[in-house]
Design brief:
Structural class: alpha+beta
Mean pLDDT: 91
Helix content: 40-55%
Order of helices and strands: EEHHHHEEHH
Number of helices: 6
Number of strands: 4
Number of domains: 1
Strand content: 5-15%
Strand order of the largest sheet: 1-2-4-3
Length: 171
């Protein structure tokens, strides 16, 4: 996968079918009803039970709306995946205006993958990859892919500006 910066946003290219499937799973992870995911994304925040109940009553519905909004935005952008010429790989434009929603969605998806696959802090260490189950290895690869996309959106990678996306021609 490669990344470029255009006037309109970031472009990810040569996205493999497996990577596209991982990205398409992001909205589903945000919308997951799995108790483990909900507890990870909306953990208990108050020591006092009454304060916790107030927080859950007033703050959680708004956070749920934010997750739903982010999932919708990511899903909408993913609907714009385009095929690369002479390849099964794809191309995706993430508009700058959607960057914060993508960052939050990718982070939440990584947290969801972590809990759904019963990963631990130790399993995140590079030397631990060979010691976890194949399912956990797949989850780790997906988590790292989402982290790479976050790196692009955070500007951690040195990307040259390529001008307007409309002028971009893939051969």
């Amino acid at each position: 996968m490669w990344a470029a910066r255009f006037d309109e946003g970031y472009v990810l290219g040569d996205i493999t079918p497996a990577s596209a499937a991982t990205l398409k799973g992001v909205p589903m992870l945000l919308e997951s009803a799995d108790v483990r995911v909900r507890q990870r994304l909306l953990p208990e925040t108050c020591d006092d039970p009454e304060d916790e109940q107030q927080w859950r009553q007033h703050a959680v519905p708004e956070l749920e709306r934010l997750f739903a909004s982010r999932a919708h935005l990511v899903r909408t952008d993913l609907a714009g995946l385009r095929p690369m010429p002479k390849s099964q790989n794809q191309l995706l434009l993430i508009p700058f205006a959607h960057g914060n929603a993508w960052l939050a969605a990718l982070n939440a998806a990584r947290l969801a993958l972590f809990v759904l696959n019963e990963l631990t802090a130790e399993s995140m260490e590079p030397d631990a990859f060979a010691t976890v189950t194949p399912k956990q290895q797949e989850a780790l690869l997906r988590i790292h892919l989402l982290a790479e996309v976050q790196s692009v959106l955070l500007g951690d990678l040195e990307l040259e500006s390529a001008g307007p996306f409309a002028d971009f021609v893939i051969e």
